[in-house]
Amino acid sequence: MFQCPHCKNNGIGIWAKFWCGSDTPAKCKSCGNFSYVHSKYRFGFQSVWPFLVSWLVIAMAIYVFFVSNNTYILVVVPFVWLAGRFGELASLPLQPISSEESTASRKFGNLFILGIAILIIVGIVAGNL
């Protein structure tokens, strides 16, 4: 469980934090308020270190496999990958958000995807004329 930015209790579950964004916020089990991980943290510098370290360890495990020809070393790879993802998840800060802000973000995201889809369809139709 992770700390809620509203009530400071451990009320945010692992999967809720893993999938939360401004359009799909995580709900605290203690206070019922919403929070999310901002995309600047999810895709930014802070999440790079656990990612790089886990892939470096995976590369070393594959190298040791080829050098020693021991197949049991490959069992380590999924566990290292999962540990890296959970390390990344634990380091990302949660930010408070209201349900109105979340709805507005979801609406903007849906309109953005609709605009991209329309541009793709117009491009396909224009290319076939």
Description:
The chain has helices at residues 14-19, 39-42, 48-68, 76-91, 99-127, and strands at residues 2-3, 10-12, 26-27, 34-36, 95-97. The chain has 129 residues and is mainly alpha-helical. The protein has a three-stranded antiparallel β-sheet. The chain has a two-stranded antiparallel ribbon with strand order 1-2. Helix 3 runs antiparallel to helix 4. It starts with a strand and ends with a helix. The model has no long low-confidence stretch (mean pLDDT 84).
Search tags:
three-stranded antiparallel β-sheet, mainly alpha, two-stranded antiparallel ribbon, 5 helices, 5 strands, 129 residues
Task: Summarize the entry for a quick read.
The chain is mainly alpha-helical.
Describe the global form: flat
- Alpha carbon gap, first and last residue: 56 Å
**What's the tally of helices?**
5
Which strand order do you get reading across the main beta sheet? 3-4-5
Query: Uncertain segments of ≥5 residues (pLDDT<50)?
Result: none
SSE order = EEHEEHHHEH
The proportion of residues forming helix, as a percent range, comes to: 55-70%
Radius of gyration from the alpha-carbon trace, in angstroms: 20 Å
The overall average pLDDT, rounded, is: 84
Kindly state the number of beta strands: 5
Major β-sheet annotation: 3 strands, antiparallel
Structural class: mainly alpha
